[in-house]
Amino acid sequence: MADNNNLIVYCEYEDGKVADVSLELLTKGRHLADRLGVKLEAIVIGDNLKDIENQVAPYGADVVYKVEDARLYPYTSNPHAAVLINLFKEIKPQVCLMGATCIGRDLGPRVSSSLHSGLTADCTSLEIGDHTDPKTGKEYKDLLYQIRPAFGGNIVATIVNPECRPQMATVREGVMKKEIFDANHKAEVIDLDAKKYVADTDFVVEIIDRHIEKSKINIKNSPIIVAGGYGVGSKENFGLLYDLANTLGAEVGASRAAVDAGFCEHERQIGQTGVTVRPKLYIACGISGQIQHIAGMQESSIIISVNNDPNAPINTIADYVITGNIEDVLPKLIKYYKKNSK
Predict the structure, then answer these.
(1) Contact at 8 Å (CB) between 67 and 15?
(2) Is the pTM of the predicted complex or chain greater than 0.90?
C-alpha cells in the first residue's frame, strides 16, 4: 500500500457495535478530511466484523480497514497497537483520531511513541489551519490544530505538530456531535490479514474473564440537567438539586470542585475531566464557571445560572441568571413548577 496521507479514525468495537465516540470522530473527521481534500478512513480491529462497514459508512468513511481474528477481541494492548503501528508505517496517514476512553488512552500513547509522532490528549476542538514557526520562519499549510484547555484551564492551548506524522489526538465522548453524513454513503472495504501485522508473541495476555460494569447514571442523554458546583456548599444542600431534578424529570450533574469536595459522585461530573453534555436545559447551581466545566456544557440549548455572585463567569454564557442563594431559589422553583404543571 502506498502513502495515502489520509485521515484515519480508530473505531472501538464492543458487543457487535462501534462505540459512539468513534462515530462522533468520524463525523468530525469527515469535515476535516474534506477541508484537507483527502479520504476519511476507519479501522476496526476485532472478531465477527461482518457488516461493520454498514455502521461506519453512513458517517462518511470512504475506506474501512477490517482486521479480523478471534484473538483480537476483546481489546488487549499489544496486538491492537501492533496493527496500528505496522499499518501506519505502510499507509502513512497524516491524521489519526481516537476516543479518549480507557482503550484510547492506552492505545494512543503506545502508537504515537513507537512512531515518534506526538499526541494531544483530551482535545475539545479540532480544526485545520496554517502555522509559521516563529524561530525559523518556516510556513506549514493545513496542520491539525489540536485544541484543549491547559495550565489548569487558565488558557486554551492550540497545539500543532508540524513535522511528525501522523498527527494524533484523542477526544472524549460527547465532545463532538454525531451526525449521519449520508445514509447511502458507500465505503471501500479492505480486509487485512492479522498475521501480517501482529506477531504471535504479541498475544501474551489472554483474557480469561471479563466483567464490564455498565453505568447506572445516564447523564449524557438527559434532556434536562440540574448541576451543582462548590457553591452549593454541602452534600445535604445537593439534596435540593435532587428534589428539583425529580420534579423536572432531570438528571443531577456536578462540577469537578463539587465532586472533589465529596458533595456528589464522580459519575455525575461534567466538564473536561468528566462527561460532555448537550441538554435542552442546563440549570447551573453555585457553579462559578471554570473553563474546564464550560467545555463540558456550553452547547446546552438553554442555560440558567443560579448563583449568589452576580459576577460569576458562568453568567456570561447563561441565557438567564438568577442571583440568590440556592437554599432560597430552588424551593421556589420546585413549588412554582409543581403548581403550574398540574
Answers:
(1) no
(2) no
